[in-house]
Amino acid sequence: MGVVANQSFKNIILTYLGFLIGGINTLFLYTQFLSTQQYGMVNYMLSLATVLTPLMAFGVHNTLIKFYSSFKTRSTQNSFLTLMLFLPLVIVVPVVAITYLFNETISDFLAVKNEIIKDYIWHTCAIAIALGYFEIFFAWIKVQMKTVFGTFMKEVFHRAGAMLLLILLYFKVVNLDQFMIGLVCVYVSKMLVMKIYAFSVKFPKITFKKLNNLIPILKYSVLIIIAGSVATVLLDIDKVMMGSYIKIKNIAYYSVAVYIAAVIAVPQRAMHQILMPLSAKYLNEKNYTSLKNLYQKSSLNLFIVSGFVFLLIVLNINELYEIMPNSNQYHTGLFVLIIVSISKLYDALLGSNNAILFNSDYYRVVLTFGVILVTIMILLNMLFIPKFGINGAAIATFIAVFLYNTAKIIFVYKKFKILPFSKFTLKIMLLISAFVLAFYFWEFPFNPIINIACKTFIVFILYVLIIYKLNFSKDITTVLKRYLKLK
């Protein structure tokens, strides 16, 4: 248990470090050193590569974790690991061949609105393959119970590499084309370093022997391709589709807004690692009372913490935009930021909902929900983006997330007769709304940085005192007593 707690703590610290570096890149360096068209191109390329990642990995990163422990002999383990290394080539080789043979056709299709996209098709393909195999090598060490180095590579390495490239671009050590090639090299290096580390932990012995459970492995891999594609499509398809409908510089405005809003999801990502095994344990034991308590506690605690982050972002956003380079241009993403922030807050309200569904017997049903809602999201993007631009993409995302989350809440209730809400949920919602109404239009007549510091301090004091005095959450009250020495 000590090893788990120790690695979890280090993983959380590394995740926040990566987020900090990414924030500096997103809010200041990219916006200062690249034109909005160039920045939009970078976001488009990375988003498209991310959407392709589950396909390039062939679901192997999840399959490896699920099935590895079921093989008890070295021979079967080696055969399984060999399969995991070569299985993605079933997709990778045809994709590379198709890209080579039909490069012009693919380029023309993707570059309907933005000619600049044509120059970076191979860049996108290379990054997608590198990301796919990175996830496989990360899973390789996860099954050996070693995750810290992998988390560093996943969260920090590529962001630090991008920061270095941006600085080199600013000082004209590299030009734009070299910068884009450099990004590809960063992601390929990330994959190679992960491979070297993974093989140092457990070196593979290439063995081609038939596995008894080959069919279930392949079925699960295909299932995970769909699951992974649903998740990444919900995150990145809007940016990919914008490249076909509006000027690519708008993707830069959109991406900055979405990145800021994504800070709200950080507590949920951290807690999810704990919620998954606990939910699995209660489901296996059929301990539905504890499952309900965990569901409601996680929902309440995440809603309180994420609600506070939501307030800090929304209440300070105008000042934050002021201190950004090209602030007038990026301020056009304000509506996007607010509506995406609300959707992230709704995600937090679900608590352990995903952990319950993914560890239950209803996993395939959730995939069906996901596929239907991705279809709806694509259709909504096709409808709204041409009419409303980046605001249309945000509206489409919000509607898709609202429908998806609501469907999952209803499904869990129908199958387990439990809801994430408690008697305090509405009170927290009213409290967050009251803070927005009270502080959004209140501005200090100082420098934007001083304004952010002052408003953050006031909101922090008032929010913490109210949460503590009204004792909305026993868990949070205990933490506040321990670390803030409150009585």
Automatic annotation (TrEMBL):
The keyword Coiled coil does not apply. It comes from the Bacteria. One of its GO terms (cellular component) is plasma membrane. This is Polysaccharide biosynthesis C-terminal domain-containing protein. It comes from Neotamlana laminarinivorans. The keyword Transcription does not apply. Keywords: Cell membrane, Membrane, Transmembrane, Transmembrane helix. It is found in: Cell membrane. The chain crosses the membrane at residues 12-33, 45-68, 80-100, 120-141, 156-173, 179-199, 211-231, 251-271, 300-318, 330-350, 362-384, 390-412, 424-442, 448-468. It is a multi-pass membrane protein.
